[in-house]
Each structure stands twice: as C-alpha cells, then as structure tokens.
C-alpha cells in the first residue's frame, strides 16, 4: 500500500448513493485504508522496514560495537582504493568513526569517495597533496583515529605508501 501524496478528505471523498446518503462500508474502508497507510509509513516498534519512520529514527545515529574489523590489503602504493562499508553502515552517506592500525608503520590516507582525485603524496611534508584530516604518518602498531563521510553507497577510499600493507580498521561508530 502506497502512502498518499496528499491528505485524504475522509469526510468529503465518499461515494454518494442518492446524492445525500454516504455508503457506510465505503466510508469505513477508506478510513481503514488511510490508517493502514499511516501504520506502514510510521512502522511498528523496532521495525526492520528500512523506509519506516520507526526504523529511520532508531537508526539515525548508531554506535557500532567496536569489534567490526576490516583488514584491507593495499593493492598498489599511493593509489586510492575503495573500502566498502555498506555492509556495516548501510548503502548511504553517513559519518563514520574509524580506528586504524598499520603493523608496519607507513603513511596512511583516507578520504570520502568522490572527493579529490590527486594521488597521495608520500613525502613527509606540510605541502602534501592529501594533507588534512585522514593523513597519518604512523609508527608500527600505532593506532590512529579518523572520521569522515561515506559516499551515498557507503564507501570511503584508502591509500598507503606501501604496496601489500595490510591495515586493521575498526568501525567505532557511525551517524546517519
């Protein structure tokens, strides 16, 4: 059942039998249809229907449990590669908070997918092409923390100064 685009005028949209008498069954059926549509739109408590208001309100801000670990391997040094977080945060744009560890200690880069295309600069300089939030010159086994928006598909991009480096990335939480 689709939610109406306009408000129902339940007292004026009834079928008239003789110009003056409302058919009672039709009136009650229209009210039932309207209530059903409202319930579908609002959802039941703890609704799993992702388009219901109950679900959207309950999941507007979500805290991950901090145990979700991803271990992407860098395919090519200094090249952006996608990290799909949609299985954890949904296929949507949201703000994610990440804990990152690189066991070897390289320069790590993070950015929202779709923003900036300049390849990361591996120099240890304030003039880095990717300077700003999401650039870390790490030591071995050092934890770093970053926050950024995912794309509308739930994807961020990562890069590292070394090919084959394996990162450990935990999703601490997300909002959106």
Helix content: 10-25%
- Terminal-residue CA separation: 27 Å
CATH topology of the largest domain: Jelly Rolls
For the record, the CATH architecture of the largest domain stands as Sandwich
Overall tally of structural domains: 2
* Uncertain parts: 124-132
**What structural category do the secondary elements indicate?**
alpha+beta
Question: Radius of gyration over alpha carbons?
Answer: 25 Å
- Give a count of the beta strands, DSSP E runs of length 2 or more: 9
Strand content: 25-35%
Largest sheet: 5 strands, antiparallel
What's the CATH class of the largest domain, please? Mainly Beta
Overall pLDDT: 77
Alpha plus pi helix count: 3
State the assembly state of the protein chains.
single chain
Order of helices and strands: HHEEEHEEEEEE
* Apparent shape: elongated
Structure commentary:
By secondary structure, the protein is α+β, with helices and mostly antiparallel strands. 16% of the residues lie in helices and 27% in strands. It has two domains: 1-59; 61-175, Jelly Rolls. The protein has helices at 24-42, 53-58, 86-89; strands spanning 61-62, 69-70, 81-84, 95-102, 107-112, 135-137, 142-149, 155-160, 167-175. The strands form two sheets. Strands 1, 2, 4, 7 and 9 form a five-stranded antiparallel β-sheet that branches. A four-stranded antiparallel β-sheet has the order 3-8-5-6, with no helix packed on it. The chain is elongated, with a radius of gyration of 25 Å.
């Amino acid at each position: 059942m689709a939610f109406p685009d306009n408000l129902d005028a339940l007292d004026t949209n009834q079928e008239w039998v003789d110009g003056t008498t409302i058919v009672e069954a039709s009136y009650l059926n229209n009210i039932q249809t309207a209530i059903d549509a409202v319930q579908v739109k609002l959802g039941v408590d703890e609704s799993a229907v992702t388009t219901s208001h109950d679900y959207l309100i309950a999941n507007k801000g979500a805290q991950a449990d901090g145990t979700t670990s991803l271990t992407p391997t860098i395919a090519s040094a200094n090249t952006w590669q996608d990290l799909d977080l949609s299985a954890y945060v949904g296929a949507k744009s949201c703000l994610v908070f990440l804990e990152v560890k690189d066991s070897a200690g390289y320069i790590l880069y993070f950015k929202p997918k779709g923003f900036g295309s300049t390849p990361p600069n591996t120099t240890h300089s304030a003039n880095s092409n990717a300077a700003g939030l999401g650039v870390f010159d790490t030591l071995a086994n050092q934890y770093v923390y970053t926050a950024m928006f995912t794309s509308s598909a739930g994807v961020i991009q990562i890069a590292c100064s070394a090919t084959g480096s394996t990162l450990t990335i935990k999703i601490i939480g997300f909002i959106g």
